[in-house]
């Protein structure tokens, strides 16, 4: 009989099995752990504490190490959990297919990189999903870990499989595979969950797994799909989602961290051993966004805005550089230039690190001249290479539909300022497939890019001006005003992109100065299926995985045909298909799969905002302003969640102010 989870045998390191095989796999360094600032704790570190229990978390970002390690969310939770003397938190990442093969051949279970313990030995297996395309990687990890794929087949010996991250705002497609999901900010809820587990263990695990999940569910802050029954109507849509046990709440609420200054993480940033997608120290300068872009799920589900003060940001930057040795610092948020004290922050940080090897970066998305001033400050130590702006919609009409209130003249004025300050490259980000979009809206992207080049040449007097147009496909997301919208089919998406590419390429005067980056429309359809899917979509995910689907976020691994063939098989007899989930517009009355998951947004407000979008498409001049600077327009979040906007200016400056 196998040892119980958490005992010495089941938790022993598997490194002796792994090490001999490392030379035979690609990038073996990603599996060895031991990064600067990583933590290996005593497996029984909780024993001397009053309750005598250790709670153990295996945290996973379900992508390869190079993408997963820099993930802020996982790094923060790893640190928050490990700060408790009775919690062990370790990390695991998706293994590449060559490593998966080796692990299956040698019976090596999914392991953590910190101490190479089997994931199956932990109390919680927590996965952070920033995209739905990581779902098949979760199944690989579960299978390698020896954890049954289906939550219903798990016993007391298996960890609680917990999903978080933005995709967890609709976890229904993975409801069969996860035991629980949490919505919103993780810092406090992971500790609350740990407390519940510790108490349950200290009591001798009464009622087993089922009772533990019940205790988590009745808190109202942890969603346990098995405690909700979903019924479907004759037309295939959901009839109702209702709790199937007494005491289980009808709706599960998101978590909102209200004092970011009190949680200055990461304080000990992990320094990767292998090459990763971001090699910098990032500080989140605020959380949430109320600009009201209708396509933006991140902005909608992270409301309200909560800023970090300048003094905390300054201290975090200094500490992070000292602890990690990184030379680049990124100031992150959904729209960093909107921090109320961003001007002071830029000047103070630039003064402080001028002449040093520290470079500062700000993901620039706002289209206005002030952004150029900021970019100039941040580039004092470096070259003025490229600036990125995100008009998102190709025409003024489309930008009104999505509530991105930037007109073409604003953009041209902004890029003129950029080019006249010595910037040579401007990158413009757009989406294709937005609701009510026509070919003409997309072709206007080419006109805009040409005007940008022309203006750049004019103000700089140079010919080496470049503009890169980068295009992503729009995917309607839950908890946004576009959650009811029809997604554009991939054939039309590709056709629009083809026409745009030809228009750009055929232009003799400007075509060569315009770079064009885009993806075809097929992955967007799969993302759309997974984003707005219900529990029936889980069968497709499993079918795809059984057919070899892995790393769906990587174009070299993604197979649209596999997804479509699997969908046909898995949905047979249900009366619904991929088009039903993706290219179909929903009615107001339809029960959406995530309606019982409470992001705080009022459904009627979302619906009226959707109607405003359609009215704007027909020429109405309706703008939803940012509630940071205008009165509250009752989106529902603050009263529902008991939260409020937290913005400055606080008047506190960076300390010390001396130049280092
Ligand atoms: S409830 Fe009002 S103040 Fe709060 S995020 Fe919504 S619109 Fe803004």
From TrEMBL:
<protein>
    <submittedName>
        <fullName>TIGR03960 family B12-binding radical SAM protein</fullName>
    </submittedName>
</protein>
<feature type="domain" description="Radical SAM core">
    <location>
        <begin position="275"/>
        <end position="513"/>
    </location>
</feature>
<dbReference type="InterPro" id="IPR045784">
    <property type="entry name" value="Radical_SAM_N2"/>
</dbReference>
<dbReference type="InterPro" id="IPR006638">
    <property type="entry name" value="Elp3/MiaA/NifB-like_rSAM"/>
</dbReference>
<dbReference type="InterPro" id="IPR007197">
    <property type="entry name" value="rSAM"/>
</dbReference>
<dbReference type="InterPro" id="IPR023404">
    <property type="entry name" value="rSAM_horseshoe"/>
</dbReference>
<dbReference type="InterPro" id="IPR023862">
    <property type="entry name" value="CHP03960_rSAM"/>
</dbReference>
<dbReference type="Pfam" id="PF19864">
    <property type="entry name" value="Radical_SAM_N2"/>
</dbReference>
<dbReference type="Pfam" id="PF04055">
    <property type="entry name" value="Radical_SAM"/>
</dbReference>
<dbReference type="InterPro" id="IPR058240">
    <property type="entry name" value="rSAM_sf"/>
</dbReference>
């Amino acid at each position: 009989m196998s040892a119980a989870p958490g005992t010495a045998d089941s938790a022993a390191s598997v490194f002796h099995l792994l090490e001999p095989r490392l030379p035979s796999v690609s990038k073996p360094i990603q599996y060895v752990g031991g990064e600067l600032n990583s933590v290996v704790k005593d497996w029984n570190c909780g024993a001397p504490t009053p309750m005598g229990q250790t709670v153990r978390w295996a945290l996973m970002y379900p992508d390869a190490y190079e993408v997963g390690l820099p993930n802020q969310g996982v790094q923060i939770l790893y640190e928050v959990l490990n700060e408790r003397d009775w919690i062990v938190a370790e990390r695991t990442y998706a293994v590449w297919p060559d490593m998966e093969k080796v692990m299956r051949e040698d019976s090596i279970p999914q392991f953590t990189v910190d101490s190479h313990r089997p994931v199956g030995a932990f109390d919680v297996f927590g996965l952070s999903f920033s995209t739905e395309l990581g779902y098949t990687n979760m199944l690989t990890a579960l299978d390698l870990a020896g954890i049954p794929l289906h939550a219903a087949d798990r016993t007391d010996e298996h960890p609680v499989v917990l999903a978080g991250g933005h995709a967890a705002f609709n976890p229904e497609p993975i409801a069969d595979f996860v035991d629980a999901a949490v919505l919103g900010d993780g810092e406090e809820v992971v500790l609350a969950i740990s407390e519940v587990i510790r108490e349950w263990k200290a009591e001798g695990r009464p009622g087993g797994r089922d009772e533990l999940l019940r205790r988590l569910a009745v808190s109202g802050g942890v969603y346990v799909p098995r405690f909700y029954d979903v019924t479907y109507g004759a037309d295939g849509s959901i009839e109702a989602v209702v709790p199937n046990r007494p005491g289980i709440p009808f709706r599960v609420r998101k978590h909102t961290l209200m004092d970011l200054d009190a949680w200055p993480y990461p304080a000990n940033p992990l320094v990767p051993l292998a090459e990763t997608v971001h090699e910098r120290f990032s500080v989140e300068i605020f959380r949430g966004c109320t600009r009201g872009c209708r396509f933006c799920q991140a902005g909608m589900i992270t409301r309200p805005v909560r800023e970090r003060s300048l003094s905390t940001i300054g201290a975090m930057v200094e500490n992070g550089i000292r602890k990690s040795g990184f030379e680049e610092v990124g100031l992150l948020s959904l729209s960093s230039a909107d921090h109320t004290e961003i001007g002071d922050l830029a000047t103070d940080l630039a003064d402080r690190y001028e002449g040093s090897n520290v470079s500062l970066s700000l993901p620039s998305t706002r289209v206005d001249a002030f952004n150029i001033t900021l970019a100039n400050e941040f580039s004092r130590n470096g070259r003025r290479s490229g600036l990125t702006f995100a008009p998102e919609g190709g025409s003024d009409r489309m930008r009104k539909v999505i509530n991105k209130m930037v007109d073409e003249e604003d953009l041209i004025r902004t890029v003129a300022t950029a080019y006249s300050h010595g910037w040579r490259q401007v990158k413009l980000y757009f989406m294709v497939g937005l609701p009510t979009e026509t070919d003409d809206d997309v072709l206007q992207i080419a006109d805009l890019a040409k005007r940008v080049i022309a203006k750049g040449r004019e103000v700089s007097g140079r010919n080496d001006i470049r503009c890169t147009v980068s295009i992503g496909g729009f995917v309607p997301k839950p908890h946004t005003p576009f959650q009811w919208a029809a997604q554009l089919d991939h054939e039309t998406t590709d056709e629009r992109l083809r026409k745009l590419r030809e228009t750009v390429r055929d232009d003799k005067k400007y075509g060569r100065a315009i770079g064009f980056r885009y993806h075809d429309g097929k992955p967007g359809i799969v993302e759309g299926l997974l984003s707005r899917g219900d529990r029936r979509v889980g069968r497709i995910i499993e079918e795809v995985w059984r057919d070899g689907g892995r790393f769906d976020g990587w174009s070299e691994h993604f197979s649209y045909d596999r997804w479509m063939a699997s969908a046909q098989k898995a949905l047979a007899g249900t009366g619904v298909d991929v088009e039903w989930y993706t290219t179909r517009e929903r009615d107001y009355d339809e029960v959406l799969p995530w309606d019982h998951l409470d992001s705080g947004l009022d459904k009627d407000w979302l619906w009226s905002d959707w109607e405003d979008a359609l009215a704007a498409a027909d020429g109405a001049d309706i703008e939803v302003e940012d509630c940071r600077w205008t009165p509250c327009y009752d989106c529902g979040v603050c009263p529902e969640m008991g939260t409020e906007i937290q913005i400055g200016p606080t008047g506190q400056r960076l300390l010390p102010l001396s130049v280092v």
